[in-house]
Design brief:
The protein is an alpha/beta fold. The protein has 2 domains: 173 residues, Rossmann fold, CATH 3.40.50.720; 105 residues, 6-phosphogluconate dehydrogenase C-terminal like domain (6-phosphogluconate dehydrogenase C-terminal fold, Orthogonal Bundle). The strands form 2 sheets. It has a 6-stranded parallel β-sheet, covered by helices on one side. Helix 4 packs parallel to helix 5 and helix 7 crosses helix 11. The longest helix is centred in the middle third of the chain and has 27 residues.
Length: 290
């Protein structure tokens, strides 16, 4: 029998991201032992029942010392404390990666809490979220054909980066690399801002006296625009705070765009509206998600 590429992986947070990572590596016959840690005993037991985990971890030193990869799949707000807890127990050859949607804050947390182990941390962001969360939402093909962005640090060896890249590729992902700063600027524009706007629209309607009437007539346009407002409030609170500066910049740009639309409507400037809509339609029609 062929020996798996990774004898043992340890996952902190066995929900959608962490659970799917484990299931995908299992499907690829690339992992031997999968150990899970988490805040919720219920979620951990569910992950056991679903075949995501081989066992629930109880001793950090025993599990981390000989692990090949540790995946931090918790909300980004929890990662600093988690890094401080695991740092003393990491094996010399154990690599750590994460699934956080922001990178600047996670890298700062790693530098503050991993100490001399910083070279073993290869930051990552799998772009494969879904509205549902928890172990029951995990799926072996979540990452198939989806992008994962690595943001390697100067301290990382090429071998370490290649090993983490290989893990995500075995999950079916298409792996890219950016700097942490590039990553956060890009995703403020194309991910974090859209989520903020989606939450804002639903929140606005939710406070109206005729909310039920409005929602009863909402159709596909509303459904498509607000789908992401069903995402985890805790996770998106952490993301917005973590990437606050870049998100404020993007929100300012969007407010200027709204002001332009407001002016065009107030002045009954149909030509301006059509000009804006035409450019937007052209770009959106030619865009193909990769």
């Amino acid at each position: 029998m062929t020996r798996p590429l990774f004898n043992k992986i340890v996952i902190f947070g066995v929900g959608l991201i962490g659970g799917s990572f484990a299931l995908a590596l299992r499907k690829a016959h690339a992992v031997g032992d999968v150990v899970g840690f988490g805040r919720s005993e219920t979620t951990l037991q569910q992950a056991m029942q679903l075949g995501i985990l081989d066992r629930i971890g109880s001793d950090l030193a025993a599990e981390l010392g000989n692990a090949d990869i540790v995946l931090l799949a918790t909300p980004v707000g929890q990662m600093a404390e988690l890094m401080a807890r695991i740092a003393p127990h990491l094996g010399a050859h154990t690599l750590v990666t994460d699934g956080g949607s922001t990178k600047g804050d996670v890298v700062a947390a790693a530098r503050a809490n991993l100490g001399g182990r910083i070279a073993q941390f290869i930051p990552a962001h799998p772009i494969a979220g879904a509205e549902k969360s928890g172990a029951a939402a995990a799926q072996a093909d979540l990452y198939a054909g989806k992008k994962v962005v690595l943001t390697p640090l100067p301290e990382n060896s090429q071998e370490a980066v290649a090993r983490v890249r290989r893990a995500w590729e075995l999950c079916g992902a298409v792996v890219s690399e950016l700097t942490p700063e590039q990553h956060d600027a890009v995703f403020a524009a194309v991910s974090h801002l859209p989520h903020l706007l989606s939450f804002a629209l639903v929140h606005d309607l939710a406070q109206r006296d005729n909310r039920d009437l409005l929602l009863s007539f909402a159709a596909s346009g509303f459904r498509d625009f607000t789908r992401i407002a069903a995402s985890s409030p805790e996770m998106w609170r952490d993301i917005c705070m973590a990437n606050r500066d870049a998100l404020l910049d993007e929100l300012g740009r969007y407010m200027q765009e709204l002001e332009t639309l407001h002016e065009a409507l107030a002045e009954a400037d149909a030509a301006k509206l059509e000009e804006i809509f035409d450019l937007a339609r052209s770009v959106r029609s030619n865009w193909t998600p990769q």
